[in-house]
Structures are given as C-alpha cells and as structure tokens.
Automatic annotation (TrEMBL):
SUPFAM superfamilies the UniProt entry points to: L,D-transpeptidase catalytic domain-like (SSF141523)
Stretches assigned to the L,D-TPase catalytic domain: 251-374
Biological pathway: Cell wall biogenesis; peptidoglycan biosynthesis; Glycan biosynthesis
Keywords: Acyltransferase, Cell membrane, Cell shape, Cell wall biogenesis/degradation, Lipoprotein, Membrane, Palmitate, Peptidoglycan synthesis, Signal, Transferase
Source organism superkingdom: Bacteria
Organism from which the protein derives: Quadrisphaera granulorum
Name of a matching Pfam family: YkuD
Gene Ontology, cellular component aspect: extracellular region
Catalytic residues (UniProt): H332 (proton donor/acceptor), C350 (nucleophile)
UniProt name for this protein: Peptidoglycan transpeptidase (ErfK-YbiS-YhnG family)
Amino acid sequence: MSAASRRAFLLAVAGGIVGGTGLLAGCGPAGGKADAGAAGASPSKSSAPAAQVSLVAEGVGAGGVTSPVPVLRPAVVSGTLQGVVVTAADGSQITGTGAADGSWSPEEPLELGGSYTAVASAVNVDGQVASVSLPFTVTGEDGAVRAKLMPLDGEVVGVGMPVVVIFTREVPKAERARLVEAIQLVSKAPDGSSVEGAWRWIGADRVHWRPKVYWPSGTSVSVKVPLTKVQVGGAWGAADRDVTFTVGDAHVSTADTNTHQMTVRVNGEVARVIPISAGREDSDPAFVTRSGVHLVLEKHADYLMDGRTVGQDYATQVKWATRIANSGEFVHGAPWSVASQGKRNVSHGCLNVSDANAKWFFDLSRRGDVVDITGTDRPMELTNGLGDWVLSWEQWTAPQV
C-alpha cells in the first residue's frame, strides 16, 4: 500500500471509529446514561475522548492480500488496546500470539487463499469500547513464492558444498539485497568460530552462499529463509524454510589429465592414487574434460551414459557413477579402458577408472566433495552443477550489477 493510500485508509478507520463508538455507547452502560440525559437527567460533568484504533496487516489495508503468517499491527489513541481477534470465513477463531508492542501473528500459517477478518478493540478511561475490523485475504497457491534449499535438512556434506536457495520465481534485482538480508545463516566450526563466507546470485531465481575457503570438517550450519516475512516480485512466500546440516570429513581429489592420475585425500592425508583416463582431445572438442573445481552432485550404482542427450552417438551402461557436473562428467567404472587408464585419455569427457576404484570412490563420496581437475584448456563453468569454486574469492564477492 502506498503512503497516501495507507493514510487514507487510517483516516477512514478513524472516522468509522468515532461513529462506531457512538453506536456502541447507545447499547452499553455509558449509552444508558446518554439515554437518561435525553429524557431530562443531568448530563455528565465530564466525558473522556473516545478511543481511536487503527489496524494494518504488513502495511496492507482492508481487502489486501497478506502473507500466510501476517503481522497485524494495531494503533490506539486516547485509549488502551484490549486485543486483536482473527476469525476465518467459517467463523472459527484463529489462535495467535500477541507481542509486547500489541502486534499479533498466528501460531500456524493461515490457509493459502483463505479469507479472514481481524478485529482490534480498545477502551477509553470511561470504559467505552471502540473497535475496527480489517478483512484480508491470504495469498493464493498460484501466486505464492516457494523456495528449495540445499543441502537437505540433516545432510552431511563435503567441504566444498555451498548453501543454495532456489525460488519458484525470478527475483527482481531491486529486491535481491533485501531478500538476502532476511536469510539467516549461522555456522559453528569445531573451534567455536563462525565461518567466513558470502552470498552471490547465480541466476535470477537462485542465490548461493559459499565460504571463503573450504568448510572446516565438523562445522554445523543452520539456514532459515523467512519467506512469509518478505515479498518477491509483489508475491508473498508460501512458507518459511529452514535446514540444519553438518560438514563431514574433507574429501579432496585432484585429477591431472596430463599425468592421468587422481590423488584422493581424506582430511589432508593421501588415501588412494587412482589411474584415470580423461576426455580425449584428438577429435571432438565436446569430449575434452573441463578443468577447474568440480563438486560431487549425485551417485548411481548403475547408470546409462547416454551421449544422445548431448548430440553424441553412444549409450553405455556403467557402474559406480559419481556425477561431478551437470553436463555429464562423472567418475565411473570403465573396464573397457583399463589398459589406457594412467596412460592416455580416451573417454567422452568423464574420468574413467576401474570398477574397483570406481566403487571405492563411490562409497567414499558425498555431495559437496571436491574434485579439482587440471590439465586442459576447457574451463569448468559456474552454472554447470555447482561450479561455485571456479571464481576466486575476489570474484565471488565483487558487486553484482
């Protein structure tokens, strides 16, 4: 609601209160005195000013659309607030909580698309009651904004895992800073310190939080997205979201396409050196493996490598496939190329390893583990899965236009 509209609404409410108080006075104890005065009794020597009460919901006036968890804010002049009562269209009363400042909010989210009426009442020193009603509608399912969070609640992740919030609609640039400020992220490393990091918009509908350096193992993180308290493109959030996750052991693998070796470290110690065969570089440039930091995204014990989905003429069933890029790069078992593993690159872009090594890596890996590939001129892309670490910290924190 604009400032002018809100002023007009409050003035209308104030005018209705004065008139409403008069009607209430004719029906209550004070009204009886007024009737007696009209019949000839002596009028009261003093009369307190009528209480004036106004009511808004998140700045929305009568008939407005609110969040499923609206904050109703009454204001009283010349009186004392008695309370706020909210009823649904069927007449049932909504259970809510009042704050010290008199504001009211429901204990549970209201029904999407539901119609409600809020009534705030106040009393003056003479006991005369004034009230005002505020009809409002909760945002509908079709117009509500939702959010998806990664990691999942309770998940144990790798040291490279970013926090990802994906909205169901694009966020206007003018609203992005305000929305990020509303998100609460709390981290606690094993030494009790918080982890330094920053948010960055990766697209119009998603924002990522990445630490400056890889997470310390054992860090606990909680993220709260209070969508019902903000608007996105003029639409309210359907529900708040929150997750808590922890960071597991540090699994950091470095794969060199020139030496054809992948060194896997666990908490800084070499756990295994695995012979690999990366994407061949002598024919189609689409087969060249990307260099840069990849993160483990998902795992499949059996998986069809279907090149037809990216315009290539092959389809091969493989075992122990650990995805590290959305474009189709995996670490997977490739028994047909064992003779080339550790010697030359013959794959379609994946890191081919033996079935035994693929299963060992598969069993070790979790989402967010680091696979840093070097040796080619083809760079990993920021938006190719979780490519957050292809940017330096200076690039990550640079202002976004």
